[in-house]
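ingest -> validate -> predict -> emit
validate: passed (alphabet ok, no gaps, 118 aa)
predict: started
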Amino acid sequence: MLVGCILLNRTHVRQVDPIIDKLFEKFPNPESMMVAEDSVLVKILRPLGFYNRRAKSLKKFSEDYVKKGTGDVNLLYGIGKYASDSWSIFQEGKKDVVPEDKELKWYMETVKDEKHDL
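emit:
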């Protein structure tokens, strides 16, 4: 999920969907991602733009993930507010998150509305 959030930075899901499976086929775990050849990562990430920056971020993120785990995702390289909010909502089940992202705002409003309907 966090890798998906990193890929979605300044990119639409329509661009990410076609490459994410290729990325995980080539690098199925954080250990393989953190030692990936830059040129191989860049080739996969090229359709998203910012491919050099993304490759660097994914490698540093993966290294942090291996060393630190997910105790506090905010401590992991490349994790911003969107990824942090997404993690809190979808992995930790928190209902008090106040996201800035429009899709996460929509989701939280939908969840709140569904709760009132019960």
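Residues 51-68 form the longest helix (18 residues).
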